[in-house]
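Wait, mind explaining this?

_____
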Amino acid sequence: MPNPQPTPPTSSTPAQALAQLKKYYFDLNDNFATLVGQCTTDDQRNQVKNEFVVARDAYLKAQNQVLIDHDNTLAAMTKQLGDLQKQIDNAISSAEQIAKILQILATASGVAAKIVTTAT
């Protein structure tokens, strides 16, 4: 049986991208105390705080500007951020090691920051 091809992202509107940025920011905000509580070092706590700031800034910037989808890159990034958000939620609910959660957060924050680069 041939390997199935990954599902391409569906078309994403700027409103969907903004909604995903909002979800990422608010979910991170809601889980902030839990994440910081799982940290064992100051570096880990600082990373959680930094990822929170990136998520907040990306959401606020996107909220105040217009996101434009260039060649479906916005759709792909929105889907990627949604997939990462699911990984974060699963990792938190299953009490994954904080190092794994921080790695996913760093990737998600990078995607969130890229989404905002589509703004005009």
Q: What stands out?
A: Residues 14-116 form one domain. Residues 1-11 have pLDDT under 50 and may be disordered.
